[in-house]
């Protein structure tokens, strides 16, 4: 093994050993060794004789403010919110259209929404289930694997990314792959274990120990809206004590985890008793046996459940099996500070283990009892198709990832269920749209794998039901402003009886109904149940900025904002909020619109309304 503190020296060695023809296997997300990676990309930029083909996913980037308002909000807090994470050179060059022809980058999963409109990224996207991405990579015959790692006791931990890497090392040991292993060590990465999650020094070729390690990417937690909490409370009813849990990416982890903690403390029953939407399941008892977790992504909500003892059912001495993580700096620090015996209860595994039943199938089936696989979607059709990865013109928002894998497991395992969650509506170009529609422009999961769908308005159990029953069940959790149009389309297509009527109990599916239910319980349903890097005044600004974004695209919305700025009572923290945005002495239209948004949010809060 060769070690150095100079990234350029390591890169020169890589080029020498490969002859300058580099096919790079690069982990997704946090596992990218940015110091080494940027040095390698720069070397390829400087020497057209070097060819560099990169296969990866989830290239992390700090956001680029798209407007003056976004700039004013983000720039003063960028390092605190996202970490002083360096630019990844290939991403910047690709975004600027300056990536040279001797460098190719292919990704199978993208940072959500980040590459919409970028032709180079969209054209280089490879659509693959997470469990198949490894095989796509192997067929490209990678000759270099680079990864960010933790080091402890003379061994290296793959830490945040065993997802594909641990399988690649297994294949190399079996003689089925041949590549140079290049690590960059990082003191802030937690040393985690699991079968294949650690390597000895004799298994590594080159190691960079940077003199000044870069700051890890931090993914700030987003505030939970009332509809998020409603979804979490519905999902919490469906989790079986003694069973198995998987939770997907986004705010979903926080809202489901908060609801499960309330359930375990016996505090959910009071909230659930006031639920105005018909639901068949009871609120659920506290967890006497606890849960076992098998998930591709380890999220803060799952760790909160682990810390509280809700996740405690062990499989081979492990309570959580996970494939990767990208979280906050506090999350990384909490993993590092766990006592060794507690940290050993978290096993980092390849996604070939977490996302599939193949290999040791009997043991996996025995372990994954009463499994609930909870994942988010963008839209659902009235017949049960799920859209999660792209938009109507084919542009990829993120990717398929592991969602389809977990839905497959839900149908393959006895007693298992897939739970797809989504808010019933979204605001697009200033207008409210239903997320349950007659048809979808693209499909991630086809209707023959429909199972359970949850919106803030309730639970639709679609498994084994006829098309007419599925449509009726989804109408029952559709926002009432869109029910009649959707029902008419179903009847026109001959998929719903002409005399069918939506039951009156489901005709109150409106944001205000959710507010009337949950605002009295707001103490149990905070915006940030697991804290946040946003400071107090930024937390005041977040809902106002969302209101500004929702209303400003239309003339009628602009008029509402202006009217509120002139006639509504000031927000209690308006002066402080405007000063934080640099608008304290500004009388321009944008500043007035933000004042209006702040006042509308304050008025809605006083009146227990949803905007």
Number of strands: 22
Head-to-tail CA distance between termini? 60 Å
User: What would the principal axes of the Cα set say about the shape?
Assistant: globular
Largest sheet: 9 strands, mixed
Provide an overview of this structure.
This protein is α/β, with parallel strands linked by helices. The protein contains 24 helices and 22 strands. The strands form four sheets. Strands 1, 2, 3, 4, 5, 6, 7, 8 and 9 form a nine-stranded mixed beta sheet that branches. α2 links the parallel β2 and β3. The longest helix is centred in the last third of the chain and has 18 residues, at 589-606. The protein is globular. The termini are far apart. 49% of the residues are buried.
Short description:
With about 600 residues, this protein is α/β, with parallel strands linked by helices.
Helix-strand layout with pairing:
Layout: E1 2-4, H1 7-18, E2 21-25, H2 34-46, E3 51-56, H3 68-74, H4 78-82, H5 89-95, E4 103-107, H6 119-124, H7 130-138, E5 144-152, E6 155-157, H8 165-173, E7 180-185, E8 198-200, E9 206-208, H9 226-238, E10 244-247, H10 252-264, H11 268-273, E11 292-297, H12 300-307, E12 320-324, H13 329-337, H14 340-343, E13 346-348, H15 351-354, H16 361-367, E14 371-376, E15 379-381, E16 386-387, H17 403-412, E17 417-421, E18 425-428, E19 431-434, E20 436-437, E21 452-455, E22 458-461, H18 467-475, H19 480-492, H20 511-518, H21 536-551, H22 555-567, H23 574-580, H24 589-606
Parallel strand pairs: 1-9, 2-3, 2-5, 3-4, 5-7, 7-9, 10-11, 10-14, 11-12, 12-13, 14-17, 15-20, 17-21
Antiparallel strand pairs: 5-6, 6-8, 15-16, 18-19, 21-22
């Amino acid at each position: 093994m060769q070690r150095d503190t100079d990234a350029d020296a390591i890169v020169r060695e890589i080029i020498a050993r490969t002859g300058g023809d580099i096919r790079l296997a690069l982990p997704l997300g946090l596992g990218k060794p940015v110091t080494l990676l940027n040095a390698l990309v720069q070397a390829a930029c400087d020497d057209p004789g070097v060819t560099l083909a990169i296969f990866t996913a989830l290239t992390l980037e700090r956001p680029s403010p798209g407007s003056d308002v976004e700039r004013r909000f983000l720039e003063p807090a960028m390092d605190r919110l996202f970490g002083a994470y360096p630019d990844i050179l290939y991403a910047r060059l690709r975004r600027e259209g300056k990536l040279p022809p001797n460098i190719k980058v292919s990704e199978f999963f993208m940072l959500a929404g980040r590459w919409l409109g970028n032709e180079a990224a969209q054209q280089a996207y490879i659509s693959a289930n997470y469990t198949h991405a490894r095989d796509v990579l192997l067929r490209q015959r990678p000759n270099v694997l680079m990864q960010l790692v933790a080091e402890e006791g003379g061994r290296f931990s793959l830490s945040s990314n065993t997802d594909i890497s641990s399988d690649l090392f297994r294949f190399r040991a079996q003689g089925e792959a041949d590549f140079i292993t290049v690590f960059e060590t990082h003191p802030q990465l937690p040393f985690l274990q699991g079968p294949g999650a650690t390597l000895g020094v004799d298994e590594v070729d080159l190691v960079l120990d940077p003199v000044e390690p870069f700051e890890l990417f931090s993914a700030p937690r987003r505030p939970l809206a009332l509809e998020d909490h409603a979804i979490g409370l519905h999902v919490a009813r469906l989790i079986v004590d003694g069973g198995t849990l998987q939770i997907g990416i986004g705010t979903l982890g926080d809202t489901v985890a908060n609801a499960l903690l309330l359930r375990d403390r016996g505090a959910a029953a009071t909230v659930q008793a006031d639920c105005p939407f018909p639901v068949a399941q009871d609120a659920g008892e506290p967890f006497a046996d606890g849960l076992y977790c098998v998930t591709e992504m380890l999220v803060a909500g799952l760790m909160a459940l682990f810390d509280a003892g809700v996740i405690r059912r062990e499989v081979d001495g492990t309570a959580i099996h996970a494939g990767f993580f990208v979280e906050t700096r506090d999350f990384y620090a909490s993993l590092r500070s766990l006592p060794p015996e507690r940290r050993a209860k978290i096993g980092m595994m390849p996604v070939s283990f977490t996302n599939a039943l193949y290999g040791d199938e009997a043991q996996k089936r025995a372990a994954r009892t009463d499994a609930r696989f909870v994942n988010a979607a963008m839209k659902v059709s009235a017949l049960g198709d799920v859209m999660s990865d792209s938009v109507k013109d084919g542009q990829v928002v993120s990717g398929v990832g592991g969602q389809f894998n977990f839905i497959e497991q839900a149908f393959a395992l006895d007693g298992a269920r897939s739970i797809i969650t989504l808010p019933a509506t979204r605001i697009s170009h200033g207008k409210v749209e239903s997320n349950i529609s007659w048809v979808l422009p693209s499909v991630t999961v086809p209707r023959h794998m429909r199972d359970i769908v949850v919106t803030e308005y309730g639970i639709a159990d679609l498994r084994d039901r006829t098309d007419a029953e599925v449509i009726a069940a989804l109408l029952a959790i559709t926002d009432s402003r869109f029910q009649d149009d959707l029902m008419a389309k179903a009847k026109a297509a001959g998929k719903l009886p002409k005399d069918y009527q939506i039951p009156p109990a489901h005709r109150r599916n409106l944001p205000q109904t959710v507010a009337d239910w949950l605002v009295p319980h707001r103490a149990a349903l905070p915006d940030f149940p697991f804290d946040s890097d946003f400071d107090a005044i930024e937390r005041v600004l977040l809902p106002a900025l969302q209101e500004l974004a929702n209303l400003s695209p239309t003339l009628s919305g602009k008029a509402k904002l202006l009217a509120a700025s002139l006639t509504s009572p000031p927000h209690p923290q308006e002066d402080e909020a405007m000063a934080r945005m640099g608008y304290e002495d500004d009388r321009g239209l944008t500043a007035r619109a933000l004042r209006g948004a702040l006042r509308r949010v304050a008025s809605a809060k006083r009146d227990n309304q949803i905007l």
